[in-house]
Amino acid sequence: MSEEKPYYILGIESSCDDTSAAVLAFHADGTVEVIAQKTASQIDIHKAYGGVVPELAGRKHAENIMPVIEEVLGEVRSQKYEAKSKPFVPDAIAVTAGPGLLTGLLVGVETAKTLSYLWNVPLVRVNHIEGHIYSVLLKEQTTGTEPINYVTHKPINFPALCLIVSGGHTELILMKDHGVYELVGKTRDDAAGECFDKVAKLLDLEYPGGPKISALAKTGRTDAIAFPRPMLKEPNYDFSFAGLKTSALYWLRDNKLSITHGFTSFLPNLLGHFGISAPAITREDFCSSFETAIVDVLTQKTLKAIKQYNPKTVILAGGVSANQKLRDALQSSIVILSPDIQFLTCPREYSMDNAAMIAMAGYAHAQKNDFSSWDTITPDPNWHIYT
Ligand code: KG4
Ligand code: ZN
């Protein structure tokens, strides 16, 4: 570890339903340290509605933003990072300016502007998707009970093909260099996480439904129900999940299954009448077959794009990247295709929205002196990083 003073960034994230702040230290030898991170989740508020309600989200971000920032600053100040003479102030502030819900983005950007002016430190305007991409450079902060503070800033070998899968996005992006992005494909309707969440709602599972479906899927049969694999055969890299969601809805309706009390399909009874026995389809089978359909589409489309673009790195990020089946399927098929391709995915603790990934992306901009002025920075709910 170098003796040189590290470069400190305060990251702020408030684009959806998490209010998050983090302070990262970037050391001269390339190591990165997440000194403190605090996230106030709004899941308990939004789950009653089955999704994020923008007005409620904005109000909650406004309530939570200063407490989470004060908490991380307090943690930093209580550690050795406190300079003896004056209180700790970061070298830069990185804030999510889009894409996302305007109500949340406004709270984050206005707070960052105020602190930038007060402390006289530069501001970095970070794209939320770019934050997810840079989350793969973070490492688990804990193993067992011992915290590991120092993590290595791994290089990304370019070009990198990024599969970003979250509640609001499903995109394949070609990253040619730091800050240089080209769109390869995206969803034409629902995002993969949105599809998980909506189908989970049909099963009376709480928002966010992805992790709940995935947990039930663990003991189910992957091939119990032949769900469609939308757009797999089409000559492009786009996705569509609305049809898959509808077919899950129709399957539940047509099989007259009780969504709350588990499945006892009438089909085995009918077959039994003719002396044929078929295993009943369980809730776990339904979840496993549905999850497998989404994972198959995401994996196959990404493999197709790899063959076309020959990336040196494949990056998997966004909330849905926490899905173990997706991680395993993508990684193992990449190894078979070409063992030389570097596969990077984020630690699970950084797969959902968080401020550490925003600070991480902010650092790449700060290194290029790509700052925004507090009096001109604005949020953009529809901001695309790619050309
Ligand atoms: O990136 P994120 O925190 O927020 C957005 O930017 O949208 O992603 C949240 C999404 C939700 O749709 C959630 O259901 C999904 O990620 N998700 C999962 C899993 N964990 C989170 N989907 C499938 N399997 C999981 N294990
Ligand atoms: Zn996100």
Instruction: Write down the overall geometry.
Output: globular
The number of helical segments is: 11
Biggest sheet statistics: 6 strands, mixed
Intertermini distance: 38 Å
Radius of gyration from the CA trace?
22 Å
Strand order of the largest sheet: 5-4-1-2-3-8
Query: Which regions contain 5 or more consecutive residues with pLDDT less than 50?
Result: 142-150
The average pLDDT score comes to 89
Bound compounds, each kind once, are: 5'-O-[(R)-(carboxyoxy)(hydroxy)phosphoryl]adenosine, zinc ion
Number of distinct beta strands? 13
Look at the helices and sheets and give the structural class: alpha/beta
Q: Could you spell the SSE succession in H and E letters?
A: EEEHHEHEHEEEEEEHHHHHEHEH
The share of residues in extended strands comes to: 15-25%
Q: What portion of residues is helical?
A: 25-40%
Topology record:
Layout: E1 7-13, E2 18-26, E3 31-41, H1 43-46, H2 54-78, E4 92-98, H3 102-119, E5 123-127, H4 128-134, E6 142-143, E7 146-147, E8 150-152, E9 160-165, E10 170-177, E11 180-186, H5 192-202, H6 209-217, H7 242-254, H8 266-273, H9 283-309, E12 313-317, H10 324-337, E13 342-345, H11 355-367
Parallel strand pairs: 1-4, 4-5, 9-12, 12-13
Antiparallel strand pairs: 1-2, 2-3, 3-8, 6-7, 9-10, 10-11
The protein binds 5'-O-[(R)-(carboxyoxy)(hydroxy)phosphoryl]adenosine and zinc ion (ZN).
Record keyword descriptors for this entry:
6-stranded mixed β-sheet, binds 5'-O-[(R)-(carboxyoxy)(hydroxy)phosphoryl]adenosine, 387 residues, alpha/beta, single chain
